[in-house]
Design brief:
7-stranded mixed beta sheet, binds pyridoxal-5'-phosphate, 40% helix, Aspartate Aminotransferase, domain 2, 12 strands, Aspartate Aminotransferase, domain 1
């Protein structure tokens, strides 16, 4: 079979060796500390589970939904008003099967083959995959220690800026754990206006942000609604990753074009999930805040624990991840991860899987309770790998 040339744009699965090693350890009965995948271990709130279960008992909710319920769109608008103090209209909102799917498709809405797009590196891998599916040419802007792990639009060459179609910004950032500031967002909006670039803000971690900072929306920045759209995901805030309940919100023309593309391939979100999303958006937010505190405790436990055994790992400011430079003596993140899992059963993700500038680091996901994180750190210490 000759598969499409498009398929050549994607690399091979690089996790195969790591997964094999993990399975081997499990088969041998060894304790495995999985700090690799960004799937929350916290419970989905009862009222969300009940909403989906109740709605699923009604036969008419098993038909094609053919679009978003008006009450769902209104719930997103009201949430944005109450949570972020941002005014949206229902025409500025549409659902997608997770921001992952949305990011995978939005490039096709905006780009022709060969168009330039601005992507962070290291970054969440679908940012790159979405651009490649659209045939766009990524220009990677660095999210490295030299820039405080933040975008610096002043360093993007003018000839690149002039031809760029869109720029993805995602803060709090996966994997690097940095967060935005009003000043930074102001610079990004000014840059977008100057060069007529659409900003796509991925806001997956607005509710996982530390040290007393309150997460916001890109649209808190004056002028942002003229130049941007935002992916707003319920996945991490409400522990509903499997439900695929996310939204694209913001500039109406972009939302309309995105809906048009998706309507070619999708008959709408499963209605019980639409009711679950309404329940999440209109329900209490205490658990979201409590959970944020628990993520912060996990971050402190991991970063302070590792630092105490001689592996100096800076504290992330947001997201559910910690971005750790490789300990002295290591330069290859995949090799290090394989050795780490073999020697102490701790699994993390090699930095090389997050794009061109991810090498030299590993990413830990804060998906285990503090006692388990402490035990993992103890194992790392005992192994002598640091
Ligand atoms: C930056 C970022 N965006 C989006 C997602 C996925 O969100 P969703 O579940 O809405 O597809 C993740 C998940 O890890 C992420 O880290």
């Amino acid at each position: 079979m000759n598969f499409s040339k498009r398929m050549n744009r994607f690399g091979d699965e690089i996790f195969a060796a790591l997964n094999l090693k993990k399975q081997k350890l499990i088969d041998e009965g060894r304790t495995v500390y999985n700090l690799s995948v960004g799937t929350p271990d916290f419970e989905t709130p009862e009222h969300i589970k009940k909403a989906v279960a109740d709605a699923a008992m009604d036969s008419k909710n098993w038909h094609y939904s053919l679009g978003d319920l008006p009450e769902l769109l209104q719930a997103v608008c009201d949430y944005y008003k109450n949570r972020f103090n941002v005014e949206l209209t229902p025409e500025q909102v549409t659902s997608c099967n997770g921001s992952q799917e949305g990011m995978g498709h939005i490039g096709m809405v905006l780009c022709d083959e060969g168009d330039t797009v601005l992507l962070p590196t290291p970054c969440y891998p679908v940012f790159i995959a979405g651009a490649k599916m659209a045939g766009a040419e990524p220009y990677y802007y660095p999210m490295t220690a030299e820039n405080g792990f933040l975008p610096d639009v002043a360093k993007i060459p003018e000839d690149i800026a002039k031809k760029a179609k869109y720029m993805i910004v995602s803060l709090p950032a996966n994997p690097v754990g940095s967060i935005g500031t009003p000043q930074l967002y102001g610079e990004i909006v000014a840059f977008a206006k100057k060069y007529d670039i659409l900003i796509i803000h991925d806001n997956a971690y607005s509710d996982i942000i530390f040290d007393g900072v309150i997460g916001g929306s890109f649209f808190n920045t004056p002028g942002a609604l003229d130049v941007g759209v935002e992916f707003f995901s319920l996945s991490k805030s409400f522990n509903v990753t499997g439900g695929r309940m996310s939204f694209l919100v913001g500039r109406e023309d972009v939302v309309a074009a995105f809906k048009k593309l998706r309507s070619q391939i999708d008959f709408g979100m499963f209605l019980p999930l639409q009711y679950a999303a309404i329940a999440a958006l209109r329900g209490p937010l205490e658990s979201v805040k409590e959970q944020n505190k628990m993520y912060e405790l996990r971050r402190d436990t991991l970063c302070e624990g590792l630092s105490a055994i001689g592996w100096r790992v800076p504290k992330s400011k947001g997201s559910m991840f910690v971005w750790a430079p490789l300990p002295d003596g290591y330069t290859d993140s995949m090799e290090f991860c394989l050795e780490l899992v073999e020697r102490c059963g701790v699994i993390c993700t090699p930095g090389c899987s997050f794009g061109p500038l991810g090498e030299g680091y590993v990413r830990f996901a804060l998906t285990l309770p503090p006692e388990k994180i402490k035990a993992a750190v103890k194992e790392i210490e005992k192994s002598g790998i640091v």
